[in-house]
Amino acid sequence: MTIDPGTRKHVFIDWQLIEPGYGVAWGGTPTSWQMPYGVRIAAHAPVIDPTPLIVPEHPWEDFINVYCTMMADDGRMRLYYETHVHKTDGSTDDLKAMLAYAESDDGITWRKPMLGLLPFRGSTANNLVYGLDAARGRGAHGVTVFRDPAAPPEERYKLVHMGREDGVYRVFGAVSPDGLRWQALDAPLLDHYISDTQTIIRRDERRGVYVGIFRSWTHLAHAPGVHGRRAIAYAETRDFRHWPTPETIVVPEASDTPDVDIYTNSYTPWPGTDDAHLMFPAYYVRARDTLEVHLLTSRDARRWERPWRTPLIGSGEPLTGREGGVYAGCGLIATRPGEWSLPIGPKRWTHNQSHFAVGRVSPDAGLLQRAVWRPDGITSLEAQHVGACSTFALRCGGNHLWLNAWTQFGGEIRCGFSEPDGTPIAGFTPAECEPVSGDQPAALVRWNGNADLGALRDRPVRLQLLLQRARLHALHFAE
Q1: Which domains does the chain have, with CATH numbers?
Q2: Is the pTM of this model over 0.85?
Q3: What is the average per-residue pLDDT within 136-145?
């Protein structure tokens, strides 16, 4: 079997490319064959930018919720965020949520344009784009916005949210030509379905379907005496207006304590590739009443793995601003050069604390921040000291090999090619490879000054990787 990576970027969320080897080869002299050693698949925590993206500053922003969408769109960046007005007791009502809009040139500094679209307390001088009358009184809780390149111009943008109509919880949708002026759809996308979190839908152009990630429950929710555990569900459709009942795909595991829920999903495709997917779900620990962001990975958005049981972004210590927990929103995008950003919502209060006046100094106001990685820096193939591995036989899909790598002081990565049987290919051995070291988002691999792989083009070969104090985040062949 020969794997054909083409010119696609490969990222290391699993061992998909790596030859497991054989402990003792059959026949001949007992010896190991192509055995990997000293390497692991590692996840890397982001840097949290302390400067907020968005803070409350207007009468319609008493409380900024964690549910938001950040997206790059035709040379500008857009941020849609959920906002509320406090009730007299300082709490909020999910079904009276509003959707506000901000934009940015760099993803760091955001402006809130006064759009004049929706009235709030008698004035349209605000940045509100949905909710209130526009949502037909259904509420606009957990909104996610996405651009649909397959839709006609008048429906180029779509959104999804939870709401209630005639006393029944449903999932609703709306369409827009510009992402600002929205028309609510008459019929729900899902009837009699509780997805009381941020539901995320996107268009999968390669497969020609809409992919939706919803909330589900391990038991009947809200029944008397039953406290079901929150989980994650999946559905897909070719018609945005009609969805099948979502199927539960991720649940708390046996290694989790019984009071753990998966509260949100924060699903996103890995930017720049079509066979890697990420979730940054907030795991809710009921005993502590706090939430922490974990990492899930997938190759197809349906079968998910949770390779690391520790939080990627934990709840904070006192004075961090996230003592009560942290959530991730929707949208992993490139912001400043050398940075990928994911919106997060730190919480000063714990999940249930806002429902109690006792001990509450002031109502929760909320804000949004950035979790920041280097490009492709969320996971890596890592050797903390010295390690090596070989790929399965693969087709050399281009004339050059590029790496996205980072090494510590004294670290390096060397690459080599061999025949499928392991015979080294002269001119392309690891010993002849010029080492890659330092912070190298786009490193062209050379052997004795030669980067041209034309002699190997379209041949089945094995790629050998030698790492020392290094992280290999991604690789790809190119013309």
Answers
A1: 10-44+379-478 (2.60.120), 47-373 (2.115.10.20)
A2: yes
A3: 91
